[in-house]
Amino acid sequence: MDSIKRHPNKILALVLVLNFRFLHCQDIDVLHKPPNLKLYNVSSQQRLIVKWNVNNTLYASDSDIVFHIQVSRANETNIICNHNYSTHISNTKQTFQWAWDSELPLECESHSVRIRRALVGQEGWSAWSAWQTHHGDVGRENNYRSKPIIYPHEKIVHEGSSVSFCCIPVKNQYVRKIQFKSTSYNVANGSPGTAVITVKNVSMSASDGTNFICFCNGSYNGTVLFVSRPPDQPSNISCETQDLKTLKCTWYPGALYNFDNKNGDGKMSPKYTLHEWISQKTSVCSARDSCSWTIEKNRAIYNFTLTAENQLGKRSVNTLVNVTENVRPFTPERLSVINITARSATLRWFLKVSYKDHPVLCQIGLQKSTGDEELINKTIHGTPTAECISKLGKGLLHPYTTYTVKVRCAVISSLPKWSKWCKSITIRTLEDVPTAPLDIWREVNESYGDRMVTLHWKPLTAFHANGYIQRYNVTWQSLGELSKPQFMNVFSPENSTHISIDSKPSVIRVTALNSAGSSPESEIRIPALSKDGFDQIQEEMTHNEDGGIFISWTSNPNLYHGYVVEWCNYPREDYCDLQWKKFNSSIHQHIIKSNAFRPGVRYHFQIYGSSLDGEHLLERKAGYIEELAPSNYPRPKIGMVEPDIMHLEWKDYAINDLQEGFIRGYNIHIKPPEGICELKKSEADIVSGDSQQCTFFIQDPLKKTFTIKQLKPNTKYEVAVAAVTKGGESSFAFGEVLTPSDTNGAILAMVVPVVIFLITALMLLVVGCWKRKTLKNFFYPDIPSPNKSNILSFDTSKDNSSNMIMLPTSGPTQNIYIVNVQEPKMHKEIQDEKYKGLDIRDYDPYSNDKIWSRCINDTQSELLTDMPHTNPLQQHLHRALNNSHAINYMEFFNRNYCPTSDDVDETVSNVGYKPQTEISQLGLQLKAHPLPTIDVQTTDMNTETDLGWRNASSENLYSLDIGEMSPLSTDSSAFMLKD
After folding, report:
1. Helix (H) or strand (E) holding 888
2. For residue range 438-492, what is the model confidence (pLDDT) as tens digits?
C-alpha cells in the first residue's frame, strides 16, 4: 500500500496500458477474420468456387499467409475437406479465390465453407469465419415439380472414372429404384428424400449416351450420361508451302471416338487451334488434320503450337518451320516432246509458279516397256514463264524403244520436298542399224547325193535390232570356188529356211535388215559329205542338276575352236522347237535349262565340235529334267510252267522315249499262297499284316524274260512284273498261275531208293567176293580140331565107339569117357529146391563136376527110340536128337568130336557151326518141357569114369536155361578145345 500511495501515477499508467493492450488484441482477432466470404457454383464441372478478401493494412507488405479452409456436406459437423491454401499478401493483392471439385453434384446436397488464416512464421490461427452455405436444389421449394430431378444432367465424363448420381423426388414421394443401363442399384438416402448412388469405372458409351432413370413411388425421370476420351495428341505435324504465300500444316489427329466425325463438327469432336509464338497470333483450324497460315513478307521462321481440345481435356504439339526448307512445288503440267531421234529426245513442261528465287531440281522418270525404270535428275533455274526444257542425250535412250516419261520437281534444300508426279506420256525413239549378228544354226539331211539344209536363226533382241526387222538376206556358195553366190530373202517374222546344196563343203551367210540398214553378217559352214558314221554314235544317259539337265563332253581344243549343243524343247510334238547353244573351246560341260522342260519327258542332246570346215557331231546325250515312275507296266506272258519252274516274258514292253524315265530294270513280284516268302535270291516284302510277297529285281532293262524256280507243284501263285525308273516303280497287276503236279517226282521217289539199294547190294557183293576170305574168317572162322590139341591126343586108330559119350538110359549103365577135366569154382547154386527138373541154365562151368561131352551112335539112337518106357528126360533128349537140328545140339557140346556114322558126319558138315541159334531153340524146347530128375552114378572102370544115375539127394542138380546164356561162343558153357 505504501508503494501504491507513493507512486499513484505510475500505477495508473500501467493499468491504462494493460487495458489498452487487452482491447487492442480483441480488435485484432476480430479484424483478422477473412471478410466477404462468398461461394459460387459451376454446375457443369461440379465445382464450388470460394472467394474472400483481406485488409492488408493490418499486415506488413509482402507477407506470406496460410488460409485453412473446411468444407462440410449436409450439416456443419460433416467435414469432408480440409485444405491449406498458401499465398502472398501485397499491396495489390487483396482478393483470393479457391476452387473445390465435388464428386457429388452440388445440387444434390447443401455444402458449407469456412476459413481461418495465419501468418507464416507466427504461431496461432485467427478465428474461423462464419459458415457460408450453398444449398443446391435440396433447400428450394419443390411443390411445383411433377417429376423427380436427377443430377448430373447430361454430363460428359472421362472413360474409366466414377460418377455419383442423385435423385431428388417430388414432395411427399420417395425414391423406389435407380437404374443405370440395365442394372438396378440399391438406394442409399442422403438428406431426407434424396437418393445417391455411385457408378465406378464407367465404359465408353454410345454416340447417344447412356440412360440413367430414377423411379419414385408416383413418377420417374431420367437423364443421359456421355462417356468419352480426351483427344489424341496430334503426331507427324509438318508445314510446307507451294506458292510461297501460304503455309499449310498437316498432322495425324489420331483415332475417331464415339462423338467424333471426320468433319470435326461432332458433339465431342476436338477443336484444333494453331498458335504462333513470335507473332502471338492464333488461327482456328477448320479441319481435324490440316490448317493454313499466311506467310509474312521477308520472314522465314515460324514457331507453332498445335492444340487439340474437347470437354475432357486437351493435347498439344510444337513445331519450328523454316519456309525456305519447306517448299513443295506444284505438280508439273503439260509434259510433251519437242524433238526426238533414235538416241535422244527433248522434253518440255510447266510449273504453276515461277520459283525464280529458288533453284529447282526436277526428276525425269524413264520407264521401258520391260518395266525397268531409270531416274534422271535435271536442275532447272526459275524463269518468269515457269517453262522447263530438258534434253535427254545420247546414252540415255535406245533406238526404236518405247518409253513412259513422267516428271516431278523439288526446291533444292537439305531435305527436298518432291512434288507429285505429273501425268505420264509415252514416246518411241527412231530406228537405227542393227548392231549384232544373227545366231544361226542348221540341220543337214542327205537325199540321193544332195543335201537339204534347214537354216535356223534366233531373232535379234530389241536391244540389238534397233528397229523392226523387215527381212533376212540369205546367201550361200561352195567353199573354194569362185562361183556366184546364190541368195534369197526371208521376210519377218520367219526365222528359218531351206537350202539345197551338193556334197561339197559350203558356206552360208545371213543378215537382218530394218529401215535403217543391215546387221553384221553371220556365217556358218557345212562340211563336205562324209561317211564317217556319225549316226552310229551311241546315245548316253545323263542326269538332272540344279533345275536343268547336265551335259558334258570330251574337250579337244586342238581340233575344235568351239562346241554347239543342240536339242528340241518339245520332242514329242511335230514342231520340236529346235534350240542350240554355243560354247568356246575352254568349256566341256554345262547345265541346259529351259522353261519348256517338263518332268517325265526325255530330251535328246547332240554335241557338235566346230572346226574350220564346219560342225561335226561328237556325242549324243539323253536326259530328264525329272524322272517319273512309268505310267504303264509290263504285261507278262506265261511261258512253260513246270511243277517247280515258271517262265515269264514281256518282250512287247517299250523302253523308248515314251517312257517317263530311263528303265533301270524290272521287279518280279510273286505272292506265295501261304504268304511266306521262301524263294532264294529274292527279297521278302510285307504287303499287308504279316503277309509277304517275294520280289526279284532284274538290273538289265534289255532283259525281258525271267525264270522263277523252286516253286511247289500243284500250287497257285500270283505273279506281276513292274518297270523301275529313278522316279519309282510302275503300277502292276497280278495274274494267277497254277503249277502242275509232279508225276516225275513220284516216279523218281520210287525208283531212286531201288536203284540205290541195287547199287549198294552190288557194291556189297563185289566187296564180299573180293574180301571173301576175310569175311569168312570174321563171320565163320574154322573150328579147331581136337586132334591138333596139345593137351588131348587121340589115337585115330581106336574105335570110335570107345570115345563116344553115351547118354544115360534106363537100361544098363553106359560107359562115359572123360575127354577133359577142369575144376572151376562154384558160380551158382540152385535157389529153388522145389524145382526138380534139369535145366541147362543151371549148368555151372565152375562146379566140381567133370565137364563131359558125348555122342550117341546110331545103335543107341535106335535103342532110345525103341524104349517106350524110358523116363521123360530120355524122351526129351530123344526128341531133341531126332530133330533136324539135333546134330547141331551135339555139336554144341563137342564141336570137333563127331559120330562115326558117315551120315552124321555129313549132316554136321552141312549145318555148320551155329551155336547161337540152335542153343536158343534147344533152350526154348527144354523150357517148354522141364526135364525130370536124373541120378548119375559114377563107377571106376579101369582108369575111366562110368556115369550112372544118382539120387537127387546125393548130388547137386543143375538146371540149364538156354535163354540166360550168352549168345557168344566164348561165353558158352561148353568147353571148346584149343586150336
Report:
1. helix 886-893
2. 999 999 998 777 899 999 999 999 889 999 999 999 999 998 777 789 999 999 9
Check residue 586 and report its DSSP letter. T
Give the torsion through C-alpha atoms of 602, 607, 608, 610, to 10 deg: 140
CATH of the domain at 602: 2.60.40.10
Same domain flag for 840 and 967? yes
Scan for cell 510461297, then name that residue. 244
Q: What is the DSSP string of 546-569?
A: TTEEEEE----TTT-SEEEEEEES
Average pLDDT taken over every residue of the chain: 78
Sheet with 387-392, edge to edge strand ranges: 333-340, 345-350, 387-392
- CA geometry: angle 898, 904, 905, nearest 5 deg: 55
The residue segments making up the domain with residue 479 are 439-526
For residue 539, is pLDDT > 60?
A: yes
- Judged by average pLDDT, the poorest of 384-388, 408-412, 936-940 is 936-940
Phi, psi dihedral angles at 793 (to 5 degrees): -120, 125
Quick one: cell of 855?
A: 555122342
State the sign of the Cα–Cα–Cα–Cα dihedral 633, 638, 639, 644: positive
Distance CA 182, CA 551 (A): 82
Tell me the C-alpha distance between 917 and 904, whole Å: 20
Quickly tell me which residue has 507243284 as its cell.
713
Query: CA–CA distance from 830 to each of 826, 834, 845, 846, 915 (Å)?
Result: 11, 10, 14, 14, 25
- 312 and 220 within one domain: no
What φ, ψ does residue 133 adopt, rounded to 5°? -120, 140
Nearest to 546 by CA among 660, 623, 445: 623
Residue carrying C-alpha cell 530406228: 431
Helix (H) or strand (E) run with residue 779 in it: helix 772-779
Do residue 74 and residue 201 come from a single domain? no
CB of 620 closer than 8 Å to CB of 628: no
Out of 12-16, 100-104, 222-226, 676-680, least confident range: 12-16
Do 838 and 915 have their domain in common?
yes
**Which residue do the cell numbers 542327205 mark?**
446
Q: How far apart are CA 812 and CA 320, in angstroms?
A: 177
Considering the domain architecture, whether residues 505 and 560 belong to the same structural domain is answered as no
Domain count, the chain: 10
Which 8-state DSSP code applies to residue 771? T
Residue pLDDT, tens place only, 316-351: 999 999 998 899 999 999 999 999 999 999 999 998
- Quote the CA–CA distance of 369 and 363 in Å, as a whole number: 19
Label residue 841 exposed, middle or buried (CB < 10 Å: 0-12, 13-18, 19+): middle
Q: pLDDT-based confidence at 364, cuts 50/70/90? A: very high
Residue 522 reports pLDDT greater than 90: yes
